[in-house]
Amino acid sequence: MKHLMTYLVMLGLFLCSPNGLAKTCQYEVNSDSLSAKKGYREGVFFYPCESNASLPAISLSGGYNNTYRNLQWMAEALAAANYIVLAVTPIDINGNVEQWTTAHLAAQNTFLAVNRAPEHTLFQRIDEQSRGMAGFSMGGGGVLQAGSALGNQVKAIAAFAPFLLAEDRPNIAVSAPTLIIAGNRDLLVTNESVNEIETQLKKNASDYAVAVVNNGRHQDWYRAEFTKKHDSFIHLTLAWFNLHLKGIANSADILMTEANTMNKPESFYQSFVLKFTPTATSSNE
Description:
Blueprint: H1 2-16, E1 24-28, E2 42-48, E3 55-61, H2 72-80, E4 84-89, H3 97-115, E5 126-136, H4 138-150, E6 156-160, E7 178-183, H5 191-204, E8 208-213, H6 219-222, H7 230-246, H8 250-260, E9 269-275
Helix pairs in contact: 1-2, 3-4, 7-8
């Protein structure tokens, strides 16, 4: 019931907002329509209802023992900001990170299949050259692994409290611009593991940001009673995707402002490492 109420409140804000947020629609990927769906158990598209433009597309997932519903709040926020989001649940939600890697690879194939299929609602509405990925926990580890495999086929990645085994972290070779949001009080995704992932990003990623949140916990992302940080998570994630998938130049200013809060008392972040090349030319959307 709480998820339903949250959805209704957010939908009302989208309809009435002066900031151009779009009314969002959704539909489930039909089980018999796409062979790409074999890589995930269920998938739901979230998208702006009234837009006929070709839009950037982002695959999204939760983490261990999660379905896509645990990150539906993020899916709805991205869709309201004029992204097409495919939120997926891996085949085995109690499996290893490879389950989420496979789910995201399949979701990226689904974008291509849907975009090229005249019978689908999103036919020719996906910008195939502006695709991204986002995931939490094992989903975050999954997007780092999938991004390493896809190379420049994806243009931006956001990994939320990304979980990877110690032996898998040195194999991360993501070249796409990558955002990491982690928590300094996360008992599962430790500061050490985040540092190891950051080391790999420095070696391979063109642009990257690693934001470690003060008093940030793993539960902040998926537990219904932990929602206080959601707006800040959405704000930072949108700035990253807006810069790298839409080329909105003032998003670079937003990212720099967020990073500079480190110099202020009671900052939202314990640390914020930011490296990017501001090549975007569009000033707004």
